[in-house]
Amino acid sequence: MKIEQIYTGCLAQGAYFIFSNGEAAVIDPLREVQTYIRKAEKVGAKIKYVFETHFHADFVSGHLDLSEKTDSVIVYGPGAKTGFKAHVARDHEEFQVGEIIIKALHTPGHTLESTSYLLLDKNRKPTALFSGDTLFIGDVGRPDLAQKGDLTMEDLAGILYDSLRSKIMTLPDDVIVYPAHGAGSACGKNMSKETSDTLGNQKKFNYALRADMTKEEFIQEVTDGLAEPPQYFPENVKMNRDGVESIDQVLERGDQALSAEAFEAKANNTGALILDTRNAADFAKGFIPNSINIGIDGGFAPWVGALIPDLKQNLLIVAQPDQEEEVVTRLARVGYDYTIGYLNGGFDVWKKSEKETDTIQSINAAEFAEKYKTGTLKIVDVRKPDEFEEGHIKGASNLPLDNINELMDEFSKNETLYVHCAGGYRSMIAASILKSRGFDDVVNIEGGFGAVSKTDVAVE
What we know:
The chain folds into three domains: 2-235, Ribonuclease Z/Hydroxyacylglutathione hydrolase-like (Metallo-beta-lactamase, Chain A); 246-352, Oxidized Rhodanese, domain 1 (3-Layer(aba) Sandwich), CATH 3.40.250.10; 361-452, Oxidized Rhodanese, domain 1 (3-Layer(aba) Sandwich), CATH 3.40.250. The chain has 16 helices and 22 strands. The chain has helices at 34-43, 63-70, 153-168, 199-205, 215-223, 233-242, 247-254, 260-270, 280-285, 300-307, 324-333, 347-352, 365-372, 385-390, 425-436, 448-452; strands spanning 2-8, 13-20, 23-27, 46-51, 73-76, 87-88, 94-97, 100-106, 115-120, 126-132, 176-179, 197-198, 257-258, 273-276, 292-293, 315-318, 339-343, 361-363, 378-381, 397-398, 417-420, 442-445. Strands 1-2-3-4-5-6 form a six-stranded mixed beta sheet. The chain has a six-stranded mixed beta sheet with strand order 7-8-9-10-11-12. The longest helix has 16 residues, at 153-168.
């Protein structure tokens, strides 16, 4: 028997490949499924089951493609209703994979169909728990994503409390917990950077598993301080529940290499949004007018999901050469399936064609500090509110990037906007969005608050 965690940092997501004696199972697969197929081929195993812990909100799962390509059975927990063929497990139902057993434990609370999968070894010893978004390392799943009718997040939190205490905390302390997410995911609020741990350790250090915690205390702590979920979450849930186009077709549609002239024509004729995925420094020096910059090397897919409201928006890609397929794949992971081509050769080709370009002024922290001394500046801090509260430039306004589409009226077109975040990634995204919407006098502060706080600029 072997358990392999396949962790994708940009989504803070863990999928799992398990095999035993010629058979394999995959838990919570990403949308691109060749990785799991190759692993099965390498060990000579047949993928028998694709287990889903719940209808994911933060990414589009690969269950349909993987099932079709491997003739495997998709398994969901009790109560799940799908738009495709799937086996809906009973609570405590067991599934044989080689010499091991995978046992479904219905653990509602994060969502109503949420199910954890307990691995029993060949001697039926509980060995590993694939806890989905029910239990994270250091946290539990947020209970506000599946509110329906009269069912509130407090109701779901109470259900989660019962699930944890009746189904999970009763398991042996040496069971290894393998969650669906780690730090950086929006599916929880206090997740550890660790991606697995023993249940015993979690009982000691995870606030939500305190033995003396009452249900009322749990509900209060779990629901306190939850940020608004990204707006693409409901759409991803729907796609995972109802079914999606094969990623093979999505990649084929997006894999269209376009000359500068063809790229420009498509931009003009389709209403496509131009998404530039280069790093912030390169983007600032020159870009196609009205492009939005979301760098591939940061939290790319979640930021796309948070900032581009329409998942069916046509997208044209500007990327570093040889990164185009990676960009299209990452977009598909969060349900953006309508990439219709990329600029062949990247921005250099556009520049050589002598077509119109734009720039964003950037200054370093020392330059900003000198300007700060000259008088009142319009400083926009696009970090999250809790970051702002921990410390910010005196006189700055907090307009979080997460909500920039709703906050456009708060930005001024009549004065220079000095925009910063923590280190520069988010501020360039914000600056590009502002530029695309007619805010011409935008200055990006390189290095963000981290660099500015080391100068003599007043911080409070």
